[in-house]
Amino acid sequence: MAKPAPQVHPVPMGAQPSLSFGRRLRRQYQLLLMSVPFVLIVVLFSYGPLWGWIMAFEKYKVAKGIWHSPFAGFDNFKLLFRDPQFFNALRNTVVMGVLNLVTGFFGAIALALMLNEVRSRFFKRTIQTITYIPHFVSWVVIANIFATLLSPDSGVVNALLMKLGIVNEPIYFLGKADLFWWIHTAANFWKELGWNTIIYLAVLSGLNPEHYEAAEVDGAKRLQKMRYVSIPGIMPTAILLLIMSVGWIIQSGYESQFLLGNPVVIDRSEVLDLYALKYSTSIGDYSYGVAVSMFKSLVSIAMVVAVNFIANRTTRNRLF
Amino acid sequence: MTHRRTWGDYAFLTTNYALLLMMGIVTLFPFLNLLAISLNDAQDTLKGTIYVWPRIFTLQNYDTIFANNNLAMAAVRSVVRTVLGAGLGVISTAMLAYVLSRKEFMFRKSFNIILIVTMYVNGGLIPFYLLVKNIHLINHGAVYILPTLIGVFNVIIMRSYFESLPDGIVESARIDGASDFQILFRIVILVSMPVMATVTLYVAVAHWNSWFDNYLYASRNPHLNLLQFELQKVLIGSVNQVFDQNTHIDGSDARRTNPETIRAAMTIIVTVPILFVYPFLQRYFVKGMTFAAMKE
Questions:
Q1: Which of A259, B4, B13, B63 is placed for a possible disulfide with A143 were both Cys, Cβ 3.0 to 4.6 Å?
Q2: Which has the minimum average pLDDT: B14-23, B85-94, B117-126?
Q3: How does it sit in the membrane (chain A) (predicted)?
């Protein structure tokens, strides 16, 4: 740093509208070098698949490729809307999405409010650290954990239920279709609960302490302070997050359902993506699979746009 | 706090602490239970009622796993993928984020829009699969790195952090004649350690945990199988598929182990590396998350 100041013009790097396009290109070649390759990768992998949507309107043949496959119009979609399995997968996707959303929303708020009342820093940190852990392990690990806990032979849950006399013989939890939604929801809740509290804890710690003091002067008890100060304090954030996640209900993923599910419970575990995957890879009907993917993406986009509009109107907060 | 605690306060506090303690136990117990099962004799485990302490302690289950060549290699590949993927990912993310944080950059707005849109619009699973197939990444190692090289959310977190740095840092370096590469790698990254740590953790964990790309795009090439994928095979009950002919479990070994204990031991092996790094990075990612959320 002891070098004498070089002769480079100390031009403020803000707006330089007077420069021509070519000169700006040359001046910013390093910035271009650092960004263009990565933007191209994003374009390839994020916009490239949209190209594949053409196939939904074709009777795609691998040998003929996307350009020479026969055109089929809306045939694939007609088939789709006539298949009861499709509606079954749609129902499963939406139900599990809603269950995840509702439990996650209330769970995170409740845990954040409870943690916020803890005065001991050590205790608070410990509980926080522990409850974040499941967020960082893979769904494969979570599925293994649940398979072990719920095992009919040696699982702890069955052992406990038997000891308490609630059941007489072990339940084969993961083999019961009726239970799948609830087990899936429990797994998801357990995995993300702690992680979802981070944002609420941040908001709570940012609340004006004077509000609490004022409430105290007015004789508010702990629960009243929670009710009249803490909860209204996090409400704007909570509502925004809720509205945001409503748009993603149909995108609740497929990994967890794939791993926790099995052929016995497939009626309740198959979601749209897995349904599309089945058709494409095992039956070889790619066009049909693409039609399913496309349907799902379009619904999702419509929901996000609608939700953004509502958020804009109600909370003056826009997502994009 | 000079204010006197009432009976109600104590009742509230006790309930609160008790519930939180229970929450902590419910989260931790499954991991401890698995650890205990993995350290317990396989035959004995079948009798059940192993909680957080092994009844008949043994390392046999871990021995069996580490003696299996398939699994050992899968573990090595997982480590290589994580290190390589996280390294390349973080550097790429930092470069893109730095450029987008420069107000004078000519394509700032258009690049931002291109990136943000991808957070809301995606083609879906099957079109993505076909893209990967068309560009010949099926059963190729690059399928693990390239598609996930840039995470838009991470770019936004980093960009926000870079934008919050004082302008003087970049300006004075520029006056000293530093190039953009020098400014990024010698200055900006070094003063942005919290956000670098956060994003590194996110990216590394995502690489370590991923198995679906292995399953879908690379399951036909045995040289690309990862630990999580092998674990997934054990989960769906095909232990024999993992312990195939090229491992020699002789009769005595086979009797001394069973799918459940192997599954538990493998789960622990896959989980432990994360448990090791994450407490050290916790304060960073909490800050990083909060920061990103508030900025939004």
A1: A259
A2: B117-126
A3: Multi-pass membrane protein
* A184, A177 Cβ separation under 8 angstroms: no
Q: How far apart are CA A201 and CA B20, in angstroms?
A: 15
CA dihedral A252, A255, A258, A261 (to 10 degrees): -70
Distance CA A138, CA B281 (A): 18
From B6, B8, B123, residue closest to A53, measured CB to CB: B123
Residue B206's domain comprises 65-245+254-294
Q: How many domains does chain B have?
A: 2
B21 and A127: CB-CB below 8 Å?
Answer: yes
Residue of B nearest to A142 (CA): B267
Per CB-CB distance under 8 Å, the chain A contacts of B108 are none
In which residue are the tokens 């979570």 written? A142
The answer to the question of residue A100 being in a domain is yes
Q: Give the pLDDT of residue A219.
A: 82
pTM of this prediction? 0.88
CATH number of domain containing B270:
1.10.3720.10
pLDDT tens profile A140-153: 999 999 999 998 87
Using CB atoms and an 8 Å cut-off, which of residues 296-315 of chain A contact chain B? Answer: 296-297, 301, 304
- Both B153 and B260 in one domain: the answer is yes
